[in-house]
Amino acid sequence: MTSTSRLPLLAGLPLAVGAGLAIPLQGRINGALGARLNDGIAASVVSFSTGLVVMILISLLLPRGRAGLAQILPAVRSRAFPRVYVLAGGIGALFVFAQSFTVGILGVALFTVATVTGQTVSGLLVDRLGIGPAGRKPVTAIRVIGCLLTIAAVAWAVSPRFTGSSGGGSDGGPATLLLPLLLPVVAGFLMSFQQAMNGTATVHYGTPIAATLVNFVAGSMVLWTAYAIKVVIAGPGNSLPGEWWYYVGGPMGCVFIGLGALLVRSLGVLVTGLGMIAGQLLGSLALDVILPSPGTVVAPATVLGTMLTLAAIILATLPWPRGALRSGHR
What we know:
By secondary structure, the chain is mainly alpha-helical. The chain has helices at residues 9-37, 40-61, 63-77, 89-106, 108-129, 141-164, 173-205, 208-234, 249-267, 269-290, 300-316, 322-329.
């Protein structure tokens, strides 16, 4: 399959859900690494750096990777797309920053709702502006309803964690939470732009491999700079652990960033993002059942909210009767 080919919805949406499944496992691994190192920035650097090494190897060893590698500089020099798109990986670094610095204050539940809200709203906007390679997609009533239902369903699915986990964000009052809450909302909002940028770059590079590599280069540069500043101010954290599984978070990031860059051309930014959100909730539910962290409780709201999210995704992706929906909306 070439980067110019398009996947049908029934094939692309399950891939988006599958890509989202890796996100909670990556978060669990990176969180454990951050606790082990006593340094969230260092854990982020390790994650991005291992992902970068994987992408360099893939780009050099695979013929398709080498072909994409050869297209990066010509595409940037010819301004085939805005040059700022090569900095899309910085948005991923911002998301990691938001994780590192606000999850402990807000709790996982509030952080998830904040990022999903930002990503869902911006998915509508990015599709409407036509920034991604799929072009402009209208803001129909059914898409808006699907987005609102997704946000409500995610809030319901994670609601048991508001009272069931530490760091629920109730100690300092609403004013204290305003700035910490704003960061994940902004990070989530920018994620749709990141997917659109990566998808556009993929079309011109000829493969998502090159777009994913550029992503990890930009994100690693941002995080290594932040880590250097942190070391100067506060010194390094603990030494790196020896267990291999601490280092698979970065390669997992390669999978969902690469798939996201590929799928936005076929599905659009909004539907790709919603599919990944569904996968994220399903992955979180599976982790809570199979490998629960201390204090985890799988409540009925968690299961029902996850199912409602899947229903919302299906509703938002109902452009099968696209003409009928538009005429009904008008």
